[in-house]
């Protein structure tokens, strides 16, 4: 089969490699029908994730068809059309029992495209198939469900739920890429008074409006803190969601937040950020971090199936599976191409 192979920072290739095989009796082999690229993959290619080693197949999001299952798989069968979650869960360790699947101690967590071969391939081995895949509902397209592999549960759990968004809140989202847009979409479920999108690119701010932001701020031209304070009587945001993963965006969230407010960091950081405790200690500010656990995936599947979440809005570009190098180029130049999510599908 062919797959996207990582060969160190800045170096990847679409290469022929051996087909995956069942290793453990809880594995499934899934033929990849639709797959996407994540901002985290770009962080890997920058060298921000040193656990990813030369020769690894990238990717942690896919929709596909089950081709083989191990003897221990009970609920997934050959021919099932499934969502492959970005998080793998053993289902039995302490953290899995607490719903913190991202911290799985039994061999799961974020392993696809990280510690084991991932989904940007013609086939993928999925460990713990019973607890790491979801049946695709009838009447829902592959690309709609594909958005639930990572970005929607990440924005919802790590941004909206960790940030404790409530009705009437002012929510500031720093970064209007796919994760920021997912946070905006998730925040709207809680009827906030204002959702403020902050970015440096006008094209992404236009996308933020389409996803539900009622105020947009180009931080290269306007003072985002001043805008948010004017909206809130001088207080600041109730929740500030960091959706970029660079020091400046985290530090801006700390400036945007009101006393008693909540900063929810979602972005993947590859460098240290300053934490200004000299300003924050007296303000009763809560700061949360997190890797997505995907405990919300069943809820989000129901919302997509009932058309309360329009997940297909994320998809801006389509490619054939063998066009991965072109897709990476378009996705990496999002400021020029206006790419949000690219979808690659089997021809």
Automatic annotation (TrEMBL):
Give the protein's cofactors: Zn(2+)
| Record bears the keyword Metal-binding | yes
Spell out the PROSITE patterns in the cross-references.
ADH_ZINC (PS00059)
Q: Which CDD domains match?
A: FDH_like_ADH2
Identify the keywords attached in UniProt to this record, alphabetized: Metal-binding, Oxidoreductase, Zinc
Pfam families per UniProt: ADH_N (PF08240), ADH_zinc_N (PF00107)
Query: Residues in domain Alcohol dehydrogenase-like C-terminal?
Result: 178-304
Q: Which domain of life is it from?
A: Bacteria
What residues does the Alcohol dehydrogenase-like N-terminal domain cover? 25-129
Alphabetized GO MF terms: oxidoreductase activity; zinc ion binding
Q: Which InterPro entries match?
A: ADH-like_C (IPR013149), ADH-like_N (IPR013154), ADH_Zn_CS (IPR002328), GroES-like_sf (IPR011032), NAD(P)-bd_dom_sf (IPR036291)
Family, as annotated: Belongs to the zinc-containing alcohol dehydrogenase family.
PANTHER family hit by this protein: NADP-DEPENDENT ISOPROPANOL DEHYDROGENASE, ZINC-TYPE ALCOHOL DEHYDROGENASE-LIKE
Q: What is this protein called?
A: Alcohol dehydrogenase
Name the species this protein comes from. Answer: Pedococcus cremeus
């Amino acid at each position: 089969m062919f797959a996207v192979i990582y060969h160190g920072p800045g170096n990847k290739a679409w290469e022929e490699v051996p087909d995956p095989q069942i290793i453990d009796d809880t594995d499934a082999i899934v033929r990849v029908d639709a797959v996407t690229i994540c901002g985290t993959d770009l962080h890997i290619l920058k060298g921000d994730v040193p656990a990813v080693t030369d020769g690894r197949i990238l990717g942690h999001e896919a929709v596909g068809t089950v081709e083989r299952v191990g003897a221990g798989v009970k609920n997934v069968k050959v021919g099932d059309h499934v969502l492959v979650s970005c998080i793998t869960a053993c289902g039995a360790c302490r953290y899995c029992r607490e719903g913190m699947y991202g911290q799985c101690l039994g061999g799961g967590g974020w392993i696809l495209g990280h510690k084991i071969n991932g989904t940007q391939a013609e086939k993928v081995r999925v460990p713990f198939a019973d607890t790491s895949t979801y049946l695709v509902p009838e009447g829902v397209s592959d690309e709609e469900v594909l958005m639930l592999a990572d970005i929607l549960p990440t924005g919802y759990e790590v941004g909206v739920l960790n940030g404790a968004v409530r009705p009437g809140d002012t929510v500031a989202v720093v970064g209007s890429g796919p994760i920021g847009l997912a946070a905006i979409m998730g925040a709207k479920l809680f009827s906030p008074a204002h959702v403020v999108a902050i970015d440096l690119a006008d094209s992404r701010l236009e996308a933020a409006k389409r996803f539900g932001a009622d105020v947009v701020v180009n931080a290269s031209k306007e003072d985002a803190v001043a805008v948010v304070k004017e909206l809130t009587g001088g207080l600041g945001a109730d929740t500030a969601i960091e959706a970029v993963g660079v020091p400046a965006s985290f530090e801006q969230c700390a400036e945007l937040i009101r006393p008693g407010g909540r900063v929810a960091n979602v972005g993947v950081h590859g460098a240290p950020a300053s934490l200004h405790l000299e300003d924050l200690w007296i303000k009763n500010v809560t700061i949360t971090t997190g890797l997505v656990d995907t405990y919300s995936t069943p809820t989000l599947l129901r919302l997509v199936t009932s058309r309360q979440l329009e997940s297909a809005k994320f998809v801006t570009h389509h490619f054939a599976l063998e066009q991965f190098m072109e897709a990476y180029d378009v996705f990496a130049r999002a400021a020029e191409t206006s790419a949000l999510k690219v979808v690659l599908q089997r021809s």
